[in-house]
């Protein structure tokens, strides 16, 4: 049986990064609803992220998005984060919102557009130097809408060249995390549609390039945990963009649509050593809260990942291995399901109390009056940018 003290220690050491855009207004292409009290600038986004960390104790880093997060002085923003017990996390680039990118960015047929896109990515690395961020997270909206629209192979060449230029600029301790996405906004073929394409580019680039698994970016029914296991085995899992998907890239709260899938993913993470800091896996949320208050929704999401992790840590690894070795299919499956069926909430409540936290982070946040305070104080909140 798993040692409960070790399970608690692993849970206490876990870190989950929250996205700056999750604190802003967001929506779908039909409507962006504004919520009272949303941040008006990156500083206020950090204030909200600090609340999430204060109540969960495991969310000390915040992903930024360039240019949705704009400041004159990045070092000052990093210092502001530090004063609040936070650090700035992954820098997310944006090569999809300029008119120039109609036919793509780093894969665009026109070298001038590719130059512009690569220039932006290099600027993002400059920002990482100033913020102390280790990861450049790349998601490309590049692709084609119609068969024959562009040469698929030529686009891969352009992608490889562009990535190589950015890779060469990475400093000591900096990494490139390449995200894949099956479709949207390109509908015929995206240029990085799947983990295999992302992995092939990362392999060609070198050890600082790794794949990001966004849980919303697959075809229905895809076995995501299998991808996770393969990437961990290859030492190329750079991190996760956790969110829930009912139908497409819904970006709803992690663990809301399919908590069992989240558990299966975390089981592969635990089984393959992905929770160890040396594995270098960044556990990030990539979510937007369209119709609910942002801060409690982020807290809930962090807790959902934490609960899935706790269940994964409770898998009796010895019993599982024994059942697998003996070919006892039902026993092996039962070991996994026993862990999944365990109510880990008492364990997590106890862990929080031991660490001086309120056992119920959402309730504690709602009691704190923060939501009412920001609703009264902040007028004209910032839009996240786009339903990411
Ligand atoms: C887009 O669909 C991807 O999920 C991106 O990771 C992300 O939403 C964007 O980069 C936000 O910055
Ligand atoms: Zn993502
Ligand atoms: Zn996405």
Automatic annotation (TrEMBL):
GO biological process terms, semicolon-separated: L-lyxose metabolic process; rhamnose catabolic process
Enzyme class: isomerase
Documented EC number(s): 5.3.1.14
UniProt xrefs under InterPro entries: L-rhamnose_isomerase (IPR050337), Rhamnose_iso-rel (IPR013457), Xyl_isomerase-like_sf (IPR036237), Xyl_isomerase-like_TIM-brl (IPR013022)
Keyword Metal-binding: yes
Keyword Isomerase listed: yes
GO-annotated molecular function: L-rhamnose isomerase activity; metal ion binding
Record's keyword terms, sorted: Isomerase, Manganese, Metal-binding
Entry superkingdom: Bacteria
Pfam family, one: AP_endonuc_2
Domain Xylose isomerase-like TIM barrel: start-end pairs: 50-249
Protein name (database record): Predicted L-rhamnose isomerase RhaI
Lineage, broadest ranks: Bacteria, Bacillati, Actinomycetota, Actinomycetes, Kitasatosporales
């Amino acid at each position: 049986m798993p040692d409960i003290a070790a399970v608690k220690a692993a849970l206490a050491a876990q870190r989950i990064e929250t996205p700056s855009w999750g604190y802003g207004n967001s929506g779908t292409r039909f409507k962006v609803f504004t919520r009272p009290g949303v941040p008006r600038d990156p500083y206020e986004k950090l204030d909200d992220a600090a609340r999430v960390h204060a109540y969960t104790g495991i969310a000390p880093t915040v992903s930024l998005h360039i240019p949705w997060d704009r400041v004159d002085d990045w070092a000052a923003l990093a210092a502001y984060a530090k004063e609040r017990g936070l650090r700035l996390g992954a820098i997310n680039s944006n090569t999809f919102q300029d008119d120039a990118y109609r036919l793509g960015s780093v894969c665009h047929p026109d070298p001038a557009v590719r130059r512009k896109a690569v220039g932006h990515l290099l600027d993002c690395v400059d920002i990482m130097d100033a913020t102390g961020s280790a990861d450049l997270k790349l998601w490309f909206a590049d692709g084609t809408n119609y068969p024959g629209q562009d040469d698929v192979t030529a686009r891969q060449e352009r992608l490889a060249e562009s990535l190589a230029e950015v890779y060469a600029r990475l400093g000591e301790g900096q990494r490139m995390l390449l995200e894949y996405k099956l479709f949207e906004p390109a509908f015929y073929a995206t240029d990085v549609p799947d983990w295999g394409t992302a992995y092939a580019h990362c392999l060609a680039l070198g050890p600082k390039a790794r794949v990001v698994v966004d849980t919303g970016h697959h075809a229905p029914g895809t076995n995501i945990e299998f991808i996770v296991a393969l990437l961990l085995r290859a030492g190329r899992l750079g991190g996760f963009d956790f969110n829930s998907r009912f139908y497409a890239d819904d970006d709803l709260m992690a663990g809301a649509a399919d908590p069992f899938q989240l558990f299966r993913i975390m089981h592969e993470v635990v089984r393959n050593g992905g929770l160890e800091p040396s594995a270098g896996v960044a556990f990030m949320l990539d979510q937007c809260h369209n119709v609910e208050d942002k801060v409690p929704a982020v807290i809930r999401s962090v807790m959902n990942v934490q609960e899935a992790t706790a269940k994964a840590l409770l898998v009796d690894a010895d019993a599982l291995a024994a059942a697998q070795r003996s070919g006892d299919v039902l026993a092996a499956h039962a070991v996994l399901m026993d862990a999944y069926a365990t109510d880990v909430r008492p364990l997590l409540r106890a862990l929080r109390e031991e660490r001086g936290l309120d056992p119920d982070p959402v309730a504690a946040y709602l009691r704190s009056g923060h939501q009412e305070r920001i609703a009264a104080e902040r007028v004209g909140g910032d839009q996240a940018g786009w339903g990411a």
